[in-house]
Amino acid sequence: MSSEHRRLPQPSPFRQESYSPGELSGECGKEWQSMKINTNEFVEVAQRELTNKRTRTLLDMISSVVDNLRDSAMSSFPDPSAALEYGRAIRAESLARLPELLDQFEKNAVAHGASVFWARTADEANQFVLDLARKRNIKYVTKGKSMVTEEIGLNDALAADGIDVFEADLGEFIAQLLKRPPFHIVGPAINVPVDEISALFLKKGLIERATQDPVELGAAARRYLRQKFQHLEMGITGVNMAVAETGAIINVENEGNIRFSKSSPKTQVSFMTIEKVVPTMRDAMHLLRLLCRNCTAQKISAYVSMDSGPKKPGEIDGPEELFIVILDNGRSAIYANENLREALRCIRCGACMYGCPIYMKIGGYPYGWAYSGPMGQVVNPLLLGLDRTQHLYRACTLCGKCKSICPGGIDHPKLFLLYRSMDVEGDVQLKGQSRPWLEQKAMNILSCGARRAWHWNAGVKGARPVVNLHARGNVISQMPLLGGWFRCRDLPAVGRKTFRERMKETGQY
Amino acid sequence: MTNPREDIFSRLNSARGTELPQRPFVPPLSEISHDRDRMIRAFTDNLTAQTAVVHHVADFAAAAEKLAEVVAAENIKSVVVSSDAVIRKLDLPEWGRKHNLTVLQAEDCTGREHFKNMVFAEADAAITGADFAIAESGTLCLIHDKDQPRLISLAPIMHIALVPLERLFPVYESAIDRIFGDPHNVPSHVTFITGPSMTADIQGVPFKGMHGPKKLTVILIG
Ligand code: SF4
User: Fold this and answer.
1) Residues A143 and A261 in one domain
2) Where does the signal peptide begin and end (chain B) (predicted)?
3) Residues of A numbered 72-111 whose beta carbons fall under 8 angstroms of chain B's beta carbons: which are they?
4) Of the residues A63, A171, A232, A302, which has the maximum number of CB atoms within 10 A of its CB?
């Protein structure tokens, strides 16, 4: 994997500071940087978020509700497990046929009049939009919620060039005003308290007096963004699915901001990554069913919109030109590795996050980037490198819940174990770190010891008193050289004699 | 510098192919076996669950009356209407004169800006015809073209859709196969609409009318 795709977005003049861990769900007034990559602060942020009462209350509340909702949504399928299996098969086939499907998609999209632009890196994609915006003399754009534009830092790139970007999804809009990363893929600002949003809207002049009413706040955002939509010249959106068979791109949403961004302006730019393509419209319909049930426990979202090219002559709204940016950003290199390829099956439904016992304790901030939860743990190490995401793929209980509900058919625990082993082995492509000299030696000694019974017995005998030197009361919670291991674990003190010794003493051995 | 497209494809193509996985059987959808009445019930139940209001009338004459009733109850003064086949049958300009309503149409606009101003600022409600309706989730399917502009069903605060019952189908595939069946002649834009615009982004509190319509009313005809 070349290093170019990992280049970080340039810091913009508007987003200087990085957020301080743990204060993320804190009071208003502090302005956080939104998309600096902070995956290496996982432990610190997680620790602070664990003691953050608001985060805790919210997540506890959500976890008691969401799983049931999702379950009952899935049970509206006549045969839920068959539906899940079929979705997984579609995603597996989509990847197996990826080059062929991308080619077919492009041909069909172009035949309908869309312009397809291929981008290897975040920079290439950003540069394309910048040039386009300059040529069209664009002052501002609205953006529908899209993870890929977060991944490439598009907002910062445009802002640095003096083009205002308005996030148009309410949650993203709030997160953007707070300069804070999204807390969750489905509800990016679901954790931000009403009074904080009220204070923020007051400060920005969206409302005239403070209010505790979420509906009033939503209406204020509606008024504000409506002006933007009405005079919009260029709209930017992501893509949920791209259909090879027809060249259509599909967006799924509840609010209508994506529909506005695709209907009002003369220029539409839709961003997708290479793995978004699916074979047929019928496949897309099936995935749509799974996506909505898993994402928001709806049978279908309020709006699903499909574009095949720009508007036709005589049509009064809709884009005169439709650009589809197909982004690689490291994925073709991931694709080359058959074992890692599976991670590209994700359809971004968010189910795995709500299912994850880790996410449900710490929320989205510790993951430190656009993708959080098991999805982020699977994707971030591949996109950012194993070295910067150590804590992510290690923070997993391997309970397997994510895998069991994933409509993409991703085996998350298997991938985490793979990342761990690739890291230990110092994989070059993914920037594995291998282990410190001391740890390697310790492992060598351990494996040598474990090979012969008498080695083992002698070792255990010798080690016991040494280990117990560090016991406090009956608990060992710290030991020199093993600080990392004990960071989140305690051991009971070791018994004076081994089980076998005691068996011998009782004469039963 | 090499071409990005070629670069990406050469990497993808040089990757080792996995065997094409076998697909299981397409899972059955129970709606396919629904009769007409069951479809109507499923459509209505699913859509009203999203706070939309569904009326069922016998014919187009009754639809025009129902429409006037709805518009009066909501105290609407001006409507923007599309001019697709369903709507044309109603002769809404004449209907508007009778009920003292301003009826706005895209064809009277000088261009995009004029039209946008109409849908954003002038119209209290929108009336569209649905190209398909889908029972499995209570979904309206609108094909957008010069007779059915996109923003009509989106910008005004209320959306009223008319659905002749012969356009009601059990599942998405029924509509999709018809719309995309001829690959050389597909519409530029198709939307599925299931209830009004909504969000729950602030503290999980549901809020209708986030960006698009706050109210959706559907009149089934036939
Ligand atoms: S990994 Fe699976 S469950 Fe998680 S977001 Fe992606 S598709 Fe959904």
Assistant:
1) yes
2) none
3) 77-79, 82-83, 85-86, 89-90, 92-93, 95-99, 102-103, 108
4) A302
Q: What is the DSSP string of B93-146?
A: HHHHHHTT-EEEEGGG-SSHHHHHHIIIII-SEEEEE-SEEETTTTEEEEEEST
Same domain for A77 and A117, yes or no, is: yes
Size of interface A-B (CB pairs under 8 A): 257
Cα(B64)–Cα(B86) distance, integer angstroms? 12
The count of domains in chain A is 3
Q: Which atom of ligand 1 is nearest to the CA of A402?
A: 3
Query: How far apart are the CA of A402 and the centre of ligand 1, in A?
Result: 8
Q: Band of the pLDDT at B120, cuts 50, 70, 90? A: very high
Q: Do A304 and B22 touch (CB under 8 A)?
A: no
CB contact under 8 A, A103 and B15: no
Q: Is A268 part of a structural domain of the chain? A: yes
Does a structural domain hold residue B144?
Answer: yes
CATH code for the domain of B49: 3.40.50.10420
Are A146 and A159 within one domain? Answer: yes
Which tens digits make up the pLDDT trace of A298-319? 999 999 999 999 999 999 999 9
Domain hosting residue B125, numbered range: 34-198+213-221
Instruction: With H, G, I as helix, E, B as strand and everything else as coil, classify residue A164.
Output: strand
B213 pLDDT higher than 80: yes
Q: Are A357 and A348 in contact (CB under 8 A)?
A: no
The pTM score is: 0.89
pLDDT band (50, 70, 90) for residue B40: very high
Q: Which domain covers residue A454, as residue numbers? A: 437-506
Instruction: Read off the pLDDT of residues A227-239 as tens digits, 9 standing for 90 and up.
Output: 999 999 999 999 9
Distance CA A479, CA A190 (A): 41
